[in-house]
Amino acid sequence: MTGIDFTVFKGSSTGNIVQSTTHKESIKPDEVLLKVTHAGLCGTDQHRKTSDIVLGHEGVGVVQQAGSQVTTFAVGDRAGWGYFHNSCGHCDECLSANDAYCPERAMYGENNTDQGAFASHAVWKAAFLFHIPDAVSSSDAAPLMCAGSAVFNAMYLHNIRPTDRVGIVGIGGLGHLAIQFAAKMGCEVVVFSGTENKKEEAKSLGATEFYVTKGVSRLEVSVPVKHLLVTTSHFPDWNLFFPVLAPNATIYPLTVAGGDLSVPFRPLLLGGVSIQGTIVASRGVHNKMLRFAAVHGIKPIIQEFPLTVEGIEEAMARLDRGEIRYRAVLVAHK
Q: How far apart are CA 184 and CA 267, in angstroms?
């Protein structure tokens, strides 16, 4: 049999990781074959681990083969990819540089389920791959493919300005990157966390103020915040946070949580508060995110594990127990 066979790691109905093989007949003219070197572990992968799909969407690898029409990548280049794999290229959103919102977009977990970042290799359209800046290591680049993209997109796309006070709820996989991006953009960064445990770490990442939320009935902040990025794994007590919002503030619920979003209606109405949905960045903004991270030295705090069945399961178990600070990165054997 001709073609390309490579190892992949899939979810299963039991939640166990299963090693399997994916076959591709050939590399299409607009595609690239990559050898995966690093893969970030995201909470979304946890949600998908009971599905019969190849897991992982924070991938970094090295180009091994490029299709005949590919001019943007050459063999040996480092490249990364994230949650977003394809779009139609001709709808209003695509033509307005908002291709992540294309009605025909291809996204992780719904399309291309026979391959992912948890694999030995992958085949992707070159147009949906990203060059990794020299200043960013492959281990650091992997979490930026989704976590970095998501938090930067909320700030960039919705015009968060250097003069704004930005509130960040939670110091985890998303939150610790959001603090860095907002600080390097010149914002006042107001961090809210359950306990004092991460105060000094938050300050070292760029927080200007820090407030504990657990066990308090009211938050006393020096000045209200104009933007509130919610990065925790569960929605917070909204009654605690609406009083610290400035008039016409915006809330960005970046949490991937089940159920409905329920917020106090009267404070929303009287305060002119907006709730802004946001996902990972479209390609143009994603490239800007990588350049910004390279220039300003923004790096995720990571823990590395082997890119094997055992390594994936250990990383997922530790993530489930809340023991990862703050992104797990799976590293392929050299």
A: 31
Rounded CA-CA distance 59/40 in Å is 7
Q: What are the CA-CA distances from residue 79 to residues 82, 270, 290 (Å)?
A: 11, 47, 12
Distances in Å between the Cα of 176 and the Cα atoms of 83, 161, 204, 325, 326 are: 20, 19, 10, 9, 8
Describe the crossing of helices 175-184 and 149-157 by its angle, rounded to 10 degrees: 40
Does the CA dihedral 100-256-318-302 come out positive or negative? positive
Average pLDDT, the chain: 97
Coil, strand or helix at 260: coil
SS3 116: coil
DSSP summary character for residue 160: -
**Verdict on whether the full-model pTM lies above 0.90:** yes
Query: At residue 1, does pLDDT exceed 50?
Result: no
Segment 312-318 shows an average pLDDT of: 98
CA distances from 83 to 99, 109, 146 (A): 12, 9, 6
At residue 265, what are phi and psi to the nearest 5 degrees? -75, -45
